[in-house]
Amino acid sequence: MAIMFSTSAILLSFLALFLAFNLANSESFIGVNYGQVADNLPPPSATAKLLQSTSIEKVRLYGSDPAIIKALANTGKGIVIGAANGDIPALAGDPSFAKNWVSTNVVPFYPASNIILITVGNEVITSNDPNLMNQMLPAIQNVQNALDAASLGGKIKVSTVHSMAVLKSSEPPSAGRFDPGFTTVLQGLLSFNNATASPFAINPYPYFAYKSDPGRADNLAFCLFQPNSGRVDSNTNIKYMNMFDAQVDAVRSALDSMGFKNVEIVVAETGWPYKGDSDEVGPSLENAKAYNGNLVAHLRSMVGTPLMPGKSVDTYLFALYDEDLKPGPASERAFGLFNTDQSMVYDAGLSKQQSQASTPVPVVAPTTPDVSKSPLTPTTPNNKATWCMPKAGVTTAQLQASLDYACGQGIDCSSIQPGGACFEPNTLANHAAYAVNLFYQTSGRNPLTCDFSQTAILSSNNPSYNNCVYPGANA
């Protein structure tokens, strides 16, 4: 008995350490953009305190403001700093300028300020400036050499950020290819990314995809991670349930097609405006909350994308605050997640309490079991009707993972789409319950198909309500 107790104690201690490690690292893929084109931003110290109350673990700056970098010291937050497009010619043409840049903007702060990445330029390749395009890689290489000289090579990565316009084609995702006009510059850049293990940073915005084509009936739900019929990639027969995964996988396909399968993708920007001008299509508080909230839940589910399953791409939400001095339509000044008094514009599930509540253990994507090898047979307790329902206390991330999986397996989720009989109440819990049950009912009603990583259970209580009818065995 003493040996049994000792072994159990060791196992419990190991489990506790494992959970603690995963809790500490589970949000490392959630970042935020901290733009400064504004005249009403709170002091950096207040922003650092705000970030520490959230599950946001990484912050991307467009420049290298020393006050902000210093304020983030000893917080553990990963920091991305940027060299402006205007700095590229000097960085490319003068190695001593690059050394001075690193000596000024990096060395005094690291490692107390956890600088993890330097982005040299923003969306340069699609800027239509051939001089900048040709100077970008030499600038990046000189910054890398300066980091090496400061014994920081490998500790801090160097890359640049691209718009989705670098792609010539993105639909279906498996056909994602870069614009041939950018091949030469991309070949050199990707060779650098590959050699230094630095990421390919991209700015996918389902919002802009919707804005350019709002007419398609399921476009909004597809963009907002809401229940929809999905879109099948005709080359792979993979069904995509949201635009974010489709856009990221299009980039994955483009990278793979050029032979750079080991280059990691980072989402440098993505977001949705909560208001806009009267003639703008898509901006609203409800849509912004749906996009960012569902994206955060999707990332926490660790389902990944169809071409990169089982992990979440590092994703920087746009943006921490509104930037009131930005030009253009009203939507450009309404991407903020927080007001300048540190209150939430809307709840996107980013508080530290929500993070700890929603990710107690890593979530494994549900998989279809091989029922032919199972000793279990489709049965119903006491010959009563049986429904598959999420367990009480299931987290938001687990519900999102189950919903994504079930609707991605070819079942008809139209009832929980806008206008469907089961769309209201418009909640994740309601939609996931309908989806997991429908998957169970259409998959032979084997008990193993009502597992969903141990987050669902069979029930004899009919969950149907009003005109919303849940299919049930023997019902």
Structure report:
- The chain has 475 residues and is α/β, with parallel strands linked by helices.
- 35% of the residues lie in helices and 13% in strands.
- The chain is built from 14 helices and 16 strands.
- It has helices at residues 2-25, 44-52, 66-71, 88-93, 95-105, 130-149, 183-196, 206-212, 219-223, 243-257, 285-301, 352-358, 396-407, 428-442, and strands at 30-34, 58-61, 78-83, 115-122, 157-163, 167-169, 177-178, 200-203, 231-232, 239-240, 265-270, 304-305, 308-309, 315-317, 387-390, 456-459.
- Strands 1-2-3-4-5-8-11-14 form an eight-stranded parallel β-barrel, surrounded by four helices.
- Helix 11 (285-301) packs across helix 13 (396-407).
- The N and C termini lie far apart (50 Å).
Q: Taking all residues together, what is the mean pLDDT?
A: 87
Largest sheet: 8 strands, parallel, barrel
Shape: globular
SS-based class: alpha/beta
SSE arrangement, N to C: HEHEHEHHEHEEEHEHHEEHEHEEEHEHHE
- Total count of helical runs of at least 4 residues: 14
Q: Helix coverage percent of residues?
A: 25-40%
How many angstroms separate the termini? 50 Å
Low-confidence stretches: 1-26, 358-383
Beta-strand percentage range: 5-15%
Order of strands across the biggest sheet? 1-2-3-4-5-8-11-14
Number of strands: 16
Radius of gyration from CA coordinates: 24 Å
